[in-house]
Design brief:
By secondary structure, the chain is an alpha+beta fold. The chain is 29% helix and 26% strand.
Length: 784
């Protein structure tokens, strides 16, 4: 007899990935894991579902599946079975490969059996299935269990469910997600009880089979059990919890954790645990209070008993406990025995890894820190601002010379300043400078550095085997001349927040968020980070909270006064507010780049709707963006060679030269240029196709759009073309129009890039079909 007749489940297990590296990426335990989870779902002492309500979809090689339509067919069967009935809870379980799009906010894709780097869109978009289950099918609760990797991938989002409706309504409904790993991290399978199983699922079923448990208590237990199962590999568990109690298992069973709780009458021994740290946070009376560092967890028998930040005090039943102190990725566990006498203990804050030499980081030593403090101070009594750069090896004592060259480009002065290992201070004008790294193998990396009037920008860079690690550079600001403060607790909170922002982690709690927003008056980048967490919340909410929008507007105005109203990061915040409010973007999509990667994403998303003039560099930056960094760090493509020139002799004309081994794409560019009035000469030299194009000009052109278009066409990765080909096929199959604006948001690639990719996808490279004109300078976006 079932105890959950109004619950339904969609369970998916994918072992087989034959098209990915010739099957080398296929898994061994996913199908068994999915089957066992479904068995728990339909067991009377488990989920209690009726067997017909729990759909199991597993992979096959012949025919290759499942494909997305097979998943939606099973989902559609659930919709049909539950039509006109109470829809209480929906379970979604997936085990297989997965990825998180680089730079995204918890945008998870679940790889299907036909996934490969070339067919990177062959995946399910998690968010779409959440929307469909609670917003469209209107289940009261949805619980998602994902035993798959969340590694960074510069690929599009997975496919939307065909059951997603136009206006999902999630009011008074709840969803929760349990991830088998941290974002941008892998999950693992390995031997468990002489079988190859996913560590997350093995731990999950171990706990679920012990009896009814509340979802948050389940999460606490998995955070202890799964890392133990995965050792020596590192794997943790993350979750997006529901703001309601969700119990898993028979409703008449007592949750396991209750036997460790006191009875509410004050029975037990008072235990107080605190974290010792040299971090302060106040340098003037006007500064924000000092945020408390160190996450404290008190554990007994794999159960989390109490948790707090910086300090925990609780009455505990006598016995043996563990106290775990977490500080970002650093963690230390201590054993304590609780008897009849009160316990008061203080533990040191674990030191985390960072390029910054804070009191809370592993490389903080006086012989390193004191020179940094001294070198970053200067006499700013006459005004001005500076960039301070500190470069040191990630490996203490490493004497490896820098591989390649690092320099600071002063864009408003037109010169580059070499940067060497050690500390250097450079007086600069307000605006944006670029850190340029020229690698020894010819690669180039560019990192924009904001410079604000009256503020010094501090940049800390680690090198590894001589190569500067720009993706993990630490960047902050201080009032001009005062120098670096290694005891600043808010820099510590800021850096931990940046890690959560880029990985989709939980982010700062409301108290820390207030600290960051208030702290903008002594480091404007604190305020920028806080603003982006406000934006993240607004983007996730089904309906943006007007109070949050108003708070964001105030923060943006204040940051405009601190950094300058035209500062790229401030422009990006205004763009996000306009996009969230569904206003027509009014900001220029040209000029310097914002520091924050998520700020640059606002520029990309705005290309879907804005008619403002666009800088063609947006395409180059988007295609070369480093998804592993919180910053707008990018690498120019080296796949093409297009040059442009203008001359008066013998008559005014523009000349373009191009050479590439991508014959089909060169043919497409040739047709595009001919259509635009160029006289084109085409030659073949070995594997290279060369074009020389000339067009008469009455005056010097303001730009060389044709060269930018050609570079974009040549630089588009094959997976983008493949993705657009599948998108075109899907729109043809369903009879719906291809919504390029939606695809901009899904791929986080500019409209120009998608238009070119669409044309390349629709026309065979053999005949070099005509590429649609790339949108530029005031032209409305093409919409299918």
């Amino acid at each position: 007899m079932t105890h959950a007749p109004d619950d339904y489940a969609l369970v998916i297990g994918v072992n087989d990935y034959p098209e990915w590296n010739k099957g080398a990426k296929s898994l061994k335990g996913s199908v068994k894991d999915a089957t066992d989870f479904r068995d728990w779902l339909i067991h009377k002492d488990g989920g209690g579902l009726a067997p017909e309500n729990a759909k199991l979809v597993v992979s096959t090689v012949e025919p290759l599946g499942p494909r997305q339509w097979m998943i939606d067919d099973a989902f559609r069967a659930i919709r049909n079975q539950s039509e006109g009935k109470l829809r209480r809870r929906f379970y979604f379980y997936f085990t297989g490969h997965g990825h998180s799009r680089a730079g995204s906010w918890q945008q998870q894709s679940l790889c299907l059996a036909n996934w490969s780097p070339l067919d990177a869109g062959a995946a399910l978009h998690l968010e779409s299935y959440i929307k469909a289950s609670i917003g469209c099918l209107k289940f009261s609760e949805s619980v998602f269990f994902l035993d798959c990797c969340r590694v960074r991938a510069v690929v599009p989002l997975g496919q939307q469910s065909e059951l997603e409706c136009g206006d999902p309504d999630a009011r008074n409904r709840y969803s929760a997600i349990l991830f088998g790993s941290d974002q941008y991290e892998p999950t693992f399978e390995g031997e468990v009880n002489e079988e190859i199983r996913g560590h997350f699922t093995a731990g999950l079923l171990t706990v679920l089979k012990q009896g009814t448990i509340e979802l948050s208590d389940l999460l606490d237990r998995l955070r202890i059990i799964v890392p133990d199962l995965a050792r020596p590999k590192e794997q943790t568990v993350r979750a997006v919890p529901a703001d309601t109690k969700i119990y898993l298992g028979p409703p008449d069973r007592k949750p396991l954790l209750e036997k460790y709780a006191d009875d509410g009458k004050g029975v037990g021994t008072q235990v107080s645990i605190s974290v010792k740290s040299n971090l302060t946070g106040s340098n003037t009376e006007q500064d924000a209070p000092t945020p408390r560092p160190g996450d404290i967890s008190i554990i007994r028998d794999d159960f989390l008993i109490a948790r707090g930040v910086g300090f925990v005090s609780k009455q505990l039943i006598p016995g043996h406990y563990q106290v775990r102190i977490d500080h970002a990725e650093a963690s230390i566990t201590y054993d304590i025995d609780v008897g009849e006498q009160p316990v008061e203990q203080q533990f040191d804050l674990p030191r985390r890894a960072s390029a910054t030499l804070l009191s809370s980081t592993i490389d903080k030593h006086e012989w390193l820190t004191d020179p940094v403090v001294d070198a970053s101070k200067w006499d700013a009594s006459q005004g001005g601002q500076a960039i301070f750069v500190s470069v040191r090896s990630q490996q203490p004592g490493d004497a490896t010379p820098m591989a390649g060259s690092l320099s600071l480009s002063l864009n408003n002065r037109g010169k580059n300043i070499p940067i060497y290992e050690g500390n250097s201070l450079h007086l600069v004008e307000p605006g944006t400078s670029d850190l340029l790294y020229f690698g020894s193998e010819g690669d180039i990396s560019i990192l924009p550095i904001p410079i604000a009037k009256g503020w010094d920008t501090h940049v800390f860079i680690l090198t590894y085997e001589g190569r500067p690690q720009l993706p993990t550079a630490s960047i902050s600001m201080r009032p001009s001349g005062v120098g670096f403060d290694p005891s600043d607790a808010l820099i510590d909170a800021y850096e931990r927040g940046i890690a959560d922002l880029v990985t989709g982690g939980p982010g700062p709690d409301p108290e820390i968020l207030d600290y960051l927003l208030w702290g903008k008056y002594r480091n404007p980048l604190f305020g920028l980070l806080g603003a982006h967490f406000l934006i993240r919340k607004l983007r996730r909410d089904p309906k943006p909270d007007p109070n949050d929008l108003q708070r964001l507007a105030i923060v943006v105005e204040n940051l405009g006064e601190l950094l300058g109203a035209d500062a790229p990061d401030v422009v990006a915040l205004r763009l996000w507010r306009q996009l969230i409010s569904k206003e027509w973007p009014r900001e220029p999509l040209a000029g310097h780049l914002p520091l924050f990667n998520v700020g640059f994403q606002a520029f990309i998303e705005a290309t879907a709707s804005s008619d403002a003039a666009m800088d063609s560099r947006l395409d180059d930056v988007a295609l070369g963006l480093d998804g592993n960094s919180p910053w707008t760090l990018w690498r120019p493509a080296r796949t093409s060679s297009v040059s442009a020139s203008w001359s008066l002799y013998p008559t005014p004309h523009t000349t373009f030269h191009l050479e590439s081994e991508s014959i089909g794409r060169v043919k497409a560019i040739e047709k595009l240029w001919r259509r635009d009035g160029f006289v084109v000469e085409s030659t073949q030299a070995g594997s290279l196709r060369k074009l020389r194009a000339i067009r008469p000009e009455g005056h010097r052109p303001r730009n060389f759009d044709a060269a930018s278009q050609a570079n974009t066409i040549l630089s588009i990765p094959d997976w983008v073309v493949s993705y657009m080909r599948e998108a075109v096929k899907q729109s043809t199959r369903t009879g719906g129009a291809l919504d390029l604006s939606r695809l901009v948001r899904r791929t986080m690639l500019p409209m120009n890039v998608l238009v070119a990719a669409k044309s390349l996808a629709e026309h065979s490279e053999d005949d070099g079909g005509v590429v649609e004109p790339i949108r530029s300078f005031g032209t409305a976006p093409p919409v299918d």
